[in-house]
Amino acid sequence: MSYSVGQVAGFAGVTVRALHHYDDIGLLVPSERSHAGHRRYSDADLDRLQQILFYRELGFPLDEVAVLLDDPDADPRAHLRRQHELLTARIEKLEKMAAAVEHAMEARSMGINLTPQEKFEVFGDFDPDQYEEEVRERWGNTDAYRQSKEKTASYTKEDWQRLQDEADELTRRFVALMEAGEPADSEAAMDAAEDHRQGIIRNHYDCGHEMHTCLGEMFVSDERFTRNIDAAKPGLAAYMRDAILANAVRHRG
């Protein structure tokens, strides 16, 4: 069975002009011609066209595609394996690019005006935007959310780096207290909890002791918070929660 140039163009999603060009340069020469001299393509020709389009999609120049396909020692299965490897690598690259674009859009919605590279430099492997949709659904109508959006809208890379440095220092402080055997309701631990609350107020939104206590509960009730916090030291999330609660009780007294 053979196919006209128009049929092949429709099958493959290419233009008739492209098929004519492939014929002219010897990359895809139709196996047959009609009595009127029109090109006729066989199933084998379609297989070759598929190989050409694979490599073209991957960015190979036509002359390199010709070399790859016309190598007499080439194994067709080896071609398929190579194409699969190349396509898999490209898919991974495109997925990373899509994720970077998505994070950039989320960052804009949060007011975090950083490039993906800058965000990596500031936050490392932690993505501060990954829960933005959930945050917006849960607290989008609250004053705290609006205050945070307003404050962070003008933050620069240096501002976010300062906040991250403050958070890292506070984490080290809590870890040191744990390792020193200080109870979570000790003065030192409660002071660290109060500094944590003041940092939220200073950098994000008004955070009363009741709200701070709710945040502390999330540290242990939401495994995502627990996992991130406990990365510094196992049990840190629970220790911070207890210190925050003790600090709230101290101020109520």
TrEMBL record:
The keyword Ribonucleoprotein does not apply. GO terms for molecular function: DNA binding; DNA-binding transcription factor activity. Gene3D superfamilies: 1.10.1660.10, Antibiotic binding domain of TipA-like multidrug resistance regulators. Keywords: Activator, Coiled coil, DNA-binding, Transcription, Transcription regulation. It comes from Streptomyces mutabilis. The keyword Transcription regulation applies. This is Transcriptional regulator. Residues 77-104 form a coiled coil. It comes from the Bacteria. Residues 1-71 form the HTH merR-type domain. Pfam families: MerR_1, TipAS.
